[in-house]
């Protein structure tokens, strides 16, 4: 078991990865060797190995993605209240990103991280696993969750990467709808994706200010960094069919998060069936995978 802050390194000829298991199972840095020979950051690297709130790295989302209004929802007659975990009024990103994960297995190019939840304010016991594998031309992250309780469990999961943003960075994805949000970044209306994405296939991330979930995503996205002569393809398996896009102006980074559910899905699901909220039966499991494939631009 790693001590708090201890880093675990994975490396191949083309990839270098730094992990902080005790800090929410977070990828602290990920570099790829460009065919030209230089190393490029695919993920915005963390500046401090002890700052879990830093907008950098990449971490798993469990047992839901994004915000839960006031940290409260009702499921099958039970009122569930979770303590705030950020300065804002709502609970964000579940709890897996702030809990220690254990190294279950490790090789030079592959690592398995596990998280066991016995039940607390989130009263449902479950186990989550994150398997990270470096291949010759891609990085694959497999996420699994297993309901260890005796009752159904509401659930959502995904991945929260922070990507570098250059002035000419673009994000390309096929999405159908978008959740418009209020001043607290909570969803208020579902509309056509073009209302916020625009008509062009490639979104110029440095020219828009977004923090919302797009739905009807086909699981494929492409980031391009023209100044760096590089791009990154992302493929997410079902049920990750929402894409959360966060583009803080002038920040030098952005997020394109493959997730299963929209913001506040557990509350919205009481009146609609398109939120992406899943229900895991006792003893059942769910799995998905995200593949990141860097490439050189011509």
UniProtKB/TrEMBL annotation:
Gene3D superfamilies: 2.70.98.10
InterPro entries according to UniProt: Aldose_1/G6P_1-epimerase (IPR008183), Gal_mutarotase_sf_dom (IPR011013), GH-type_carb-bd (IPR014718)
GO biological processes: carbohydrate metabolic process
Organism: Kaistia nematophila
Superkingdom: Bacteria
Protein name as catalogued: Aldose 1-epimerase
GO MF annotations in UniProt: carbohydrate binding; isomerase activity
């Amino acid at each position: 078991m790693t001590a708090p802050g201890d880093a675990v390194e994975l490396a191949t000829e083309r990839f270098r990865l730094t992990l902080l298991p005790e800090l929410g199972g977070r990828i602290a840095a990920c570099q790829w060797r460009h065919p030209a020979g230089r190393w490029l950051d695919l993920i915005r690297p963390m500046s401090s190995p002890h700052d879990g709130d830093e907008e950098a790295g990449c971490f798993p989302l469990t047992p839901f993605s994004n915000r839960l209004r006031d940290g409260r929802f009702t499921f099958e007659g039970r009122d569930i209240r979770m303590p705030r975990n950020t300065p804002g009024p709502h609970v964000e990103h579940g709890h897996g990103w702030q809990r220690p994960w254990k190294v279950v297995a490790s090789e030079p190019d592959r690592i398995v991280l596990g998280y066991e939840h016995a039940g607390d304010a989130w009263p449902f016991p479950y186990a989550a696993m994150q398997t990270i594998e470096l291949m010759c031309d891609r990085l694959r992250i497999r996420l699994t969750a297993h309901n260890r309780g005796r009752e159904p469990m509401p659930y959502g999961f995904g991945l929260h990467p922070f990507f570098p943003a250059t002035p000419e960075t673009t994000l390309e994805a096929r999405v159908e709808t978008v959740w418009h949000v209020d001043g607290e970044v909570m969803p208020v209306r579902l509309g056509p994706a073009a209302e916020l994405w625009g008509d062009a296939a490639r979104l110029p991330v440095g020219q828009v200010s977004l923090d919302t979930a797009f739905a009807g995503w086909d699981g494929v996205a492409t980031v391009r960094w023209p100044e760096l002569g590089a791009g990154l393809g992302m493929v997410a398996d079902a049920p990750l069919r929402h894409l959360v896009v966060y583009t803080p102006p002038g920040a030098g980074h952005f997020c394109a998060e493959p997730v299963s559910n929209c913001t506040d899905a557990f509350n919205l699901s009481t009146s609609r069936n398109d939120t992406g909220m899943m229900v895991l039966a006792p003893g059942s499991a769910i799995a998905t995978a995200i593949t990141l494939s860097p490439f050189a631009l011509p």
